[in-house]
Design goal:
Layout (H helix, E strand, L loop, with lengths): L3 H8 L8 H19 L1 E8 L5 H11 L22 H13 L2 E6 L2 E6 L8 H8 L4 E7 L6 H12 L4 E6 L8 H12 L3 E3 L1 E4 L7 E4 L4 E4 L11 E2 L6 H7 L2 H15 L5 H5 L4 E5 L8 H11 L6 E2 L4 E2 L7 E9 L8 E9 L2 E2 L4 E3 L4 E3 L5 E4 L2 E4 L2 E2 L4 E6 L8 E3 L16 E7 L5 H13 L4 E5 L5 E5 L3 H14 L3 E5 L4 E7 L2 H10 L4 E3 L5 E5 L2 H10 L3 E4 L5
Parallel strand pairs: 1-3, 1-4, 4-5, 5-11, 6-11
Antiparallel strand pairs: 2-3, 7-8, 8-9, 9-10, 12-13, 14-15, 14-23, 15-22, 16-21, 17-18, 17-23, 19-20, 24-26, 24-27, 25-26, 25-29, 28-30, 28-31, 29-30
The protein binds guanosine-5',3'-tetraphosphate (G4P).
The site of guanosine-5',3'-tetraphosphate has 18 residues, from helix 3.
């Protein structure tokens, strides 16, 4: 740490000497605070199911010493085969509380990996998690290339200019040609790439990678226990390369020349602004290319970044604590109805037992058991810093997007809800339990499991979700957690759109004519229920001054 006395001369000029001990304390506190922020890297790994996200996460945790054996994270997966087996999903949801955030220290850096559900029916959960990270690593299967879910996830990252690193996995298997893969990624994901490593052959003939970033050669061994060490290799024309990789040496030289000619040189600022994305090749299962990825990641990935509120931008270095809830997880134990709200700390130092303002409720709350997540373990924490995620036990005070501050009225922006894709009317199946049903629906939708709309004319409740699975989850949880029964009735809906307009007359006319197709969301905002793509198109053409929004972020 820098010399406090020297720093004091700049920070507190003209102060009396008798104040010195106090000032030294304050200065040292401030420096620790800044150091703590700067050593944090908070990110998510995203991929289409089966590309290798879990395997890669696990290998990173092994390097961080956060787990000792492979297989520990695996159980967190909600497998696609389990779509109707949702007792299993409940069990796995329980596990996923523990693995929602996996923190570990590596070379003095505090790495926070936020877990994202792989199952497509939980995509919205993933989108929200992406608001709480500062960067992402996208895993692509070398044989399959870009898959559907990767496209949607990357689109959300691009909208937010989130820095992205691409890890091309499963190089030990026969796959697509490296150039072809990069072309596909650039086109389908609209990204500009810059390879920081380059594969030497692939599949059964895979020999390793050349790290462009560190000018080193990493030779592959198909061995899960082995960690490849790179050898510095600056002079690629040397005959030693031929000795090491035989006939692949010439191909490597030619390909690297081509890479240099075609792709821009790596520049950290371009990566941080989301303009270019570094690419690595490897095999997570064989522990190959993972350490190299991690070593580079901790150097180039962004330190915690600020966020916009509706009122002003907040920077992490600000002294006062602020944070927002991006995920809520119900307790799995039916005897304890509380939930865990996951808060991303944006600025200041969070302290246990200190009163904070819940801005929406205009109430002070204290948290006696804030939870930190270190891989598989949960522990009570006394303080946390920007970039960290804390879990707060909650008896129903929080909903997604809520802001906590030290008193200032701020509302964090950018926790999107997307227009759902599946809809059902929800009806009470047990007239004695209508209160329980209303409370259950309110709380489950606060958690972000689904969206709730109320028909303007009919007063009927409509649930909208991203996937089929949520309907089952809701019915099950209503019964088991709230003692309420519901039944679903079909509704023929294509999409919902939030509507706004400056043209009040046109909006009023639309609302009168389309009264049967209007609903209110939970915040009371107007939503148009479009029965078909055609109905939506006609409405948009006939009412050009009305904006139809497909995400709630407008
Ligand atoms: P996901 O979280 O993205 O869904 O993928 P996950 O890590 O579970 O990996 C999916 C499958 O791909 C797993 O096989 C895993 O072992 C395999 N895999 C991951 N990385 C590599 C790699 O570098 N090379 C090869 N050849 N395979 C890899 P599985 O049979 O579905 O599961 P398991 O039985 O191995 O657990």
């Amino acid at each position: 740490m820098s010399n406090p006395r020297r720093g004091l001369l700049f920070l507190y000029p003209g102060k009396k000497l008798s104040h010195l001990p106090n000032l030294i304390d304050r200065y040292e506190d401030q420096m620790t605070f800044i150091d703590e922020i700067n050593r944090r890297r908070t990110f998510a790994i995203v991929s289409h199911p089966d590309a290798g996200k879990t395997t890669l996460t696990e290998k990173l945790l092994l390097y961080g010493g956060a787990i000792q054996v492979a297989g520990a994270v695996k159980s967190n997966k909600i497998r696609k085969t389990a779509t109707s087996d949702w007792m299993e999903i409940e069990r796995q949801r329980g596990i996923s509380v523990a693995t929602s955030v996996m923190g570990f220290d590596y070379q003095g850096i505090k790495v926070n990996i936020l877990d994202t559900p792989g199952h497509k029916d939980f995509a919205e959960d993933t989108f929200r998690t992406l608001t709480a990270v500062d960067s992402v690593i996208v895993v692509v299967d070398a044989a399959k290339g870009v898959e559907a879910q990767t496209e949607r996830l990357v689109e959300v990252c691009r909208m937010r200019n989130t820095p992205i690193i691409v890890f091309i996995n499963k190089m030990d298997r026969p796959g697509k040609d490296a150039f072809e893969l990069l072309d596909e990624i650039e086109q389908k994901l609209s990204l500009h790439l810059t390879p920081l490593s380059w594969p030497i052959n692939m599949g059964p003939k895979f020999k390793g990678v050349y790290s462009i970033y560190s000018s080193s050669l990493y030779l592959f061994q198909s061995d899960k226990q082995h960690i490849a060490e790179g050898v510095a290799f600056n002079d690629l024309s040397s005959s030693e390369l031929d000795t090491l990789i035989g006939e692949d040496a010439e191909t490597l030289r030619n390909e690297l020349e081509l890479v240099q000619g075609v792709y821009p040189e790596f520049n950290r600022n371009d990566y941080l602004s989301g303009a270019i994305c570094p690419v690595f090749f490897g095999s997570a299962l064989n522990n190959f290319g993972v350490k190299e990825l991690l070593d580079c990641f901790i150097r180039i990935a962004p330190t915690p970044i600020g966020r916009d509120t509706e009122e002003r931008r907040i920077e992490p270095q600000e002294e006062k604590f602020t944070g927002f809830v991006f995920k809520i997880h119900a307790n799995m134990d039916p005897n304890h109805r509380d939930r865990i709200a996951f808060v991303r700390i944006v600025s200041g130092r969070f302290e246990r037992n200190k009163p904070y303002t819940h801005v929406r409720l205009k109430r002070e709350l204290k948290f006696s058991n804030p939870t930190a997540f270190m891989a598989q373990k949960k522990s009570v924490l006394d303080e946390a810093y920007p970039g960290d995620i804390v879990g707060l036990y909650d008896a129903g005070n929080f909903k997604i997007g809520d802001t906590l501050t030290e008193g200032e009225v701020l509302n964090y922006k950018g926790i999107p809800s997307f227009s759902p894709e599946q809809f059902r009317y929800v009806e009470n199946a047990d007239p004695m339990k209508s209160k329980q049903l209303a409370k259950g629906l309110e709380q489950l939708t606060d958690e972000g499991v689904a969206q709730l709309f109320t028909g303007k004319m009919t007063g009927r409740k409509i649930i909208g979700t991203v996937g089929e699975l949520q309907f089952e989850v809701i019915q099950y949880r209503l019964l088991h957690e709230y003692g309420a029964s519901c039944r679903y009735e079909p509704i023929s809906l294509y999409k919902t759109a939030w509507i706004t307009s400056e043209n009040e007359a046109q909006l009023a006319d639309f609302k009168t004519r389309k009264a049967l197709n209007l609903a209110a969301d939970k915040e009371g905002r107007d939503v148009f229920l479009a029965e078909s793509p055609y109905a939506l198109q006609i409405a948009m053409e006939k009412y050009p001054d009305i904006q139809f929004h497909f995400t709630s972020e407008f």
